[in-house]
Every structure is written in structure tokens, then in C-alpha cells.
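User: C-alpha cells for Ribose-5-phosphate isomerase A, please.
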Amino acid sequence: MTQDELKQQAALRALDYVIDGSIVGVGTGSTANFFIDGLAGMKDRIVGAVASSEVSARRLASHGIRLFDMNDVDDIPVYVDGADEINGGLAMIKGGGGAQTREKIVAAVARKFVCICDASKRVERLGRFPLPVEVIPMARAQVARELARLGGRPVLREGFITDNGNLILDVHGLSITDPAALEATIDGIVGVVTNGLFAKRGADVLLLATPGGVQTFERT
Ligand SMILES: O=C(CO)[C@H](O)[C@H](O)COP(=O)(O)O
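Assistant: Done. Predicted C-alpha cells:
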């Protein structure tokens, strides 16, 4: 079974969590794309969706799914998104697609975060995947110095501008022993918009697609 087939299996299982008559929070990435395509098959049962990126918004719209602005929405029962890494406590690294800021905003409002992944994303310890940090352009060098002081090796994502008009520094080599503490520390650096650690607001449910089937894990 290919990685894409596994991603699709996890994504389609997440359709079971969609609540009729609700506005669905939708993530970004190749796994989220499979979810969007599946959601199209039940679009008459939902009110619409809020997207965590322009690219997901376009894909939702292409299926005729009604889009809502986050500022007009105060209840999102379920948010479905992928991850770059997820640990046993359902803390994640996200932002491989550079969308972590909007993803965090939608996830913050959502009552339930359903993470959809193929088995390669499940790790014992977060940090092999470089941590994406969204940075205000004029603060790039200053933030890079601070991240280096934390033991990381920040690398500018060349040619990439976020949906918010900012830059991404991908930070290699961080030792992430306490994801929530590091998330707060990095967010405290002046000029950082958000970082890709989702520990304060981790997933509530992980749908992990393995060759043997989709396994469900719930936050305890
Ligand atoms: O955080 C993300 C985008 O910012 C994605 O969820 C993450 O990069 C996983 O992507 P994919 O489903 O393509 O493996």
C-alpha cells in the first residue's frame, strides 16, 4: 500500500467525525486534500467549511463547498488536519506546508481536533522534522539568532511566502524534550508569528493509517 493510499484511508475515516449541519474546520496538505475530496461527497449534509489556507479554500470551493470567514464563525465542532510528526501524547509538529498559523487559529476555535496521518508520522519524540517558524520579514535575522541560541539551526524556506505575507524559518536540530515549553518559548520571541509545535493545543483524536488498517487514538 502506498503512502498516498494510507493518507487517503485516514482522511476518509475522518468523515465519520463530521457533524451534520455544522461548519467543518479543514486543514492543509496532501492528507487534508483527501479529506476535502471526501467531504465533497457529503457537502449537502454540512453548512460549509473554514479553511486553514488559500490552497485548501480553493480546493473546497472547486467542490462547491461553501466557505466561511473565520471572523464570522464562533463554533467549529471538528477540525481535521494532517501533521508532519505526532507523538504518543498527540502533540504535533505541523507547518510543512507553511500554513501553521491559520491552522492554529482554526484549531483554537475547534472543539475537536482530528489528526489524520499515515504511520510514518508517528514518532516517539518530536524534532526530526525541522520545526517551521513563521516570522515577520523584518525580524528574520533577529529571530534566527534567537533560535540558534535555543540550539537550533534555522534555515530560510527559500522563495516561500505564507498566506499572511511572512517568511518561514525551518529549524533543524532542536532538542524537544518538553514540546509545550518550547512552543511557548519560541512564540515569545519578538517577530515570531507562530511556530509549528502544536502541544498546548494538540490533537484530540489521531487516525493513524497503517497497512493493517486505520488505528484510532484518543487524548487521555
Ligand atoms: O501542517 C501542515 C501544513 O502546514 C500539514 O498538515 C503537514 O505538512 C502534513 O502534510 P501532508 O498531509 O502533505 O503530509
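User: Anything notable?

Assistant: The chain has two domains: 3-123+200-218, 131-196.
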